[in-house]
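Predict the 3D structure for this chain.
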Amino acid sequence: MREYDQAIYMADSGITWVGTTSGLYQLSSNNPAKGVISRRYTIWDGLPSNEINDIGKFNEYLIVAVISDYVHLSLKNWTKAI
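Done. Predicted structure below.
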């Protein structure tokens, strides 16, 4: 399976989040084209699916939409949406 970028979100902190068909990537650079992957999140980290459809922000949470669910990521840890 090939990996495709599905969604990109650039946070105010300079961190870029990239959703793909194989998980959510956190880039540590201000330039996504030259970004360094500092973390990859998958189903093993609490995502309901590795296929990310959209990324956004609400208050202090990164909202990550997958096929039939969503999760929100605080700066400290993953929390499954209720």
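The chain has no helices and eight strands.
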